[in-house]
Structures are given as C-alpha cells and as structure tokens.
Amino acid sequence: MKKVSVSFTLNGDAVTAEVPVTWNLLKTLRDYFELTGAKEGCGVGECGACTVLVDGEAVNSCLYPVFEVEGKSVTTIEGLAGEDGALHPVQQAFLENNGVQCGFCTSGMIMSAKALLDHTPSPSEEEIREGIAGNFCRCTGYVQIVEAIDMAAKKIKQAG
Amino acid sequence: MIDYDYRKPETLEEVFGLLREYGPDAALIAGGTDVMVKIRNMKKAPPVLVSLRGLTDLRYIRKNGGYHIGGLTTHRMLETSDLVREELTALYEGASRIGSVQVRNVATLAGNICNAAPSADTAGPLLVLDARVVLQGPEGRRTVPVAEFFTGPYKTVRRPDEVVVEVEIPEETAGFGSAYFKHSRRKAMNLPILGVAVSVKLSEGDTVSDARIGLTVAAPTPVRARKAEDFLKGKPLSDDVLAEAGRIAASPECCAPRDSLRCAAWYRREIIEVSVLRMAKLAASRIKSR
After folding, report:
1. What is the mean pLDDT of residues B141-154?
2. In Å, how far from its chain's centre is CA A98?
3. What is the model's pTM?
4. Inter-chain touch A60–B3, beta carbons under 8 Å
5. Is B90's Cβ below 8 Å from some Cβ in A?
6. For residue A147, how many other CB atoms are within 10 A of its CB?
7. What's residue B244's pLDDT?
8. Identical topology for domains B58-172 and B175-285
9. Are the CB atoms for B4 and B46 separated by under 8 Å?
10. Domain containing A74 — which CATH number?
C-alpha cells in the first residue's frame, strides 16, 4: 500500500509521519506517534471519543484523512498540560468535579470543552451542552461533566 | 482491503485536469464526513480521492446584491455568521443542527447538497430561500435552481466533472422571513425524522404576498410544497389559513413520505401539518422589512 509523508505540528513540535495513505489522523496519532489519549469508539464520527483540535477547532480524528493534516497544527489531550506537568484547568476541573467514570470519553470530552472555552470563555449551560453534544458518555448523566466545564471556565477567568 | 491514493489540487483548473486524467476512478472529497464513513462502511474506496480542501478561495459568505456562499464554506462558518443568522435564518437553523461541532467544523455546504440525502439539513432552508447552485466544469459555469438540483436519493444533476463552487440566494429573499424545524429524537448527532422549512413575505394587513415551503424526508428528494404555497398567496396570515396550508402540504398532492425504520409515513404527514403552521408564524415574525 502506498505511503505518504505528512509534516505538521503536533502538540507544539514539528513532526513528520510516514504512514499508509489510507490512514486517518486517529490511527496516525495512536499507532505511529503512540499517543493513545484519543480513542476509537465508533469510527464514523458519531461518538467523539477521538476528538482532537486541528488549527484550534475540534474535529473527529477518525474521519480526518491523514493527508489533510499537512501543514496544520494538531493538539491532543497529551499536549494540554503545561511544561511543568501542571494540568490544564479543564483537566483539573474534571478531576475535582468527578467528571470521569470509566474514562473512555474523557479525552474527547476535554478537547471539545477546551475548544468551546477558547471561543466562548463564559458559556451558558446550554452552550456547554451544545459544545459537547458530539461526545457520548455512557457512564454518567453528563451532569458532573457540564459542571466541570463550568468550573473550568470560572477558574480560567479568575486566573485571566 | 481499503486502498486509495489522493491528490490535493489548489486550483479549479487542477481539479478539472485530475478529473479528466482519472475519469471514473476519481471521486471528489470536501470535508469527508460522508465520504470517509461510506468508505469505511462499504470497505471499498474509489481509486483516487481528489481533495477540494486546498481550494481555500471557495470558503466565503458575502452579501453583494444577493447572498453568495462559497461551496467549501463549512456549516460552522454558516452557524457563526451574523449575516446568516439574521437574514437567512432558516439556513442558520439547518446548518447549526447538523451532526456535532466536530462535524460542522469540517463538513461543507456543497458536500451536504452533493451527498443529496433526502434528509439533508440545508436542503429545506435552501429551497425556501430560493437558492441557486453554481456548478463549474471544464466548459464553464451553469446555474441550477436548488429545486431542480436533486434528482433522486443521493443523486443530483451535477456531472462527474463539475464542482459546486457557490450557492447564491437572490436579493429578493431579504424581504422574506424564514424558519426551519428539524424533527428528531435528540438535538445533536441525528438525522431529521422530518424537516420543514418555510419562508413568507407579507403585504399590507398581514396578507401573504409570497410563501415557500420546503420538505425533507417527505419524498425521494427534498421538495417544495407548491400547492400549499399557491393556496397561501393572497390570503391573510391566520391560524385557519395556515392550518389548511399544512393539510395541503401534508397531502399526497405535495409529498410522499414513506414508512421507514425511523418513522411511519402517517406520523410524518402529521408533523408536516402542524409544522407548516408553526414555521410560517415563526418565519413571519422574522420579517425585517416590508
């Protein structure tokens, strides 16, 4: 199978991947870069477990052909914590507010929440629910997750 | 085994050159949210994917006389545009209810109509906004009213060597108010069980001077309910009149909904009947100028 060489920025570092043309971004992240935070749930863009940011916007990495990543900037859950290992406020809020149960949806949920707060620093509850509507959680009733995102928004604002 | 190659042209001329070179072996891909799912589900792919994402000039929303929307404009761009929200409200309502934020960030308007699902969320709004689809091929441009664009489930008048470069909406549409209702089981990540779009224009004394009704999942293609539209013209915007328009729109004269896994035909007709009334009132409340 034909391979493709794709150069892009991954969590701030310039990288090049040599992978089969038919791979998607999710498979490239997991199997080439061994960044296994993004998960494959459905593989067809329904569940959001594979959510990463491309040029700052949340996308389903399972539907993103790897050849489209050339020249772009990709952020995954592994790239959120600071240099010193300090968690991103959204990650911290999920911990403090019990926003995690089995954890399978968590990476995607946090990436969607980050994209939301980057664009909408003070979201209403409805805006939060809209922002994570493409992320399925099958453990919880979403309540702690929504509260965690609200908490993160407030923390970021205070620190602002 | 899924196998394919790809090309990433940067100009339309390059696209046409590649389509000529590969002929039926090539398939166009824009945001990919339909194409990639189809490849995965079918376990086979066209030999060459020709990506349109390099045509960044085709991402725009402009008002210049009428409204001009580039083919590669994403649903997220439509959803976050003040112009679309305020002046083409039905399109805002359609675009903002597609999939999820993740899908809307990459999926394009041209992709939604070229995929031509009977349930396409932008189709009903485009029908009532009287949109025209601008197709460009190696021989030049042609413009097709959106009402004539769809020819069957997942089928359009687009020829294999043509690209949908723009959707244009005439200036007269500014005098209409519009609304779209998507009936679905949950708010996100769901296809409509039925979609009803309405636009209306009023004259003195709340008389309907013009009205358009677009239905999706109500026939093999998105359709205009023209008999119901004709009935409305010249009549007062009253509940009785709108209820009768709803009955006409839901009748076999205007649509042919089918029984499917997601919904029974009789229920689809009931949704049309009540939604035409509700959406017409909502559309009328949104009219900016007489």
Report:
1. 97
2. 18
3. 0.96
4. no
5. no
6. 18
7. 98
8. no
9. yes
10. 3.10.20.30
pLDDT at B187 (0 to 100): 79
The range of the structural domain enclosing residue A119 comes to 89-159
- Statement to judge: residues A149 and A110 lie in one domain: yes
Q: Which helix (H) or strand (E) holds A125?
A: helix A125-131
Q: What are the two backbone dihedrals, phi and then psi, of residue B222, each rounded to the nearest 5 degrees? A: -60, 140
Bridge partners of B195, per DSSP, are B182, B216
Mutate to test the interface with B, among A22, A114, A128, A129 (most CBs of B within 10 A): A22
CA nearest A62: which of A84, A85, A39?
Answer: A39
d(CA B290, CA B285): 12
Domain extent listing, chain B: 5-50, 58-172, 175-285
ipTM of the shown complex: 0.96
Q: Evaluate whether B54 touches B29 at the Cβ level (below 8 Å).
A: no
**Residue B290 reports pLDDT greater than 80:** no
A41 and chain B in contact, CB less than 8 A: no
Q: Are residues A17 and A35 in the same domain?
A: yes
Any domain includes A84: no
DSSP letters along B14-30, please?
HHHHHHHHHGGGEEEES
Does residue B185 sit at the A interface (CB-CB below 8 Å)? no
Pick among 3.30.390.50, 2.30.30.40, 3.40.50.2300, 2.60.40.1180: CATH of B175-285: 3.30.390.50
For domain B5-50, give the fold: 3.30.43
* CATH class of the domain at B58-172: alpha beta
B10 inside 8 A of chain A by CB: no
Question: Are B236 and B263 contacting, i.e. CB atoms less than 8 angstroms apart?
Answer: no
Output the CA torsion B191→B130→B92→B12 (10° steps).
Answer: 90
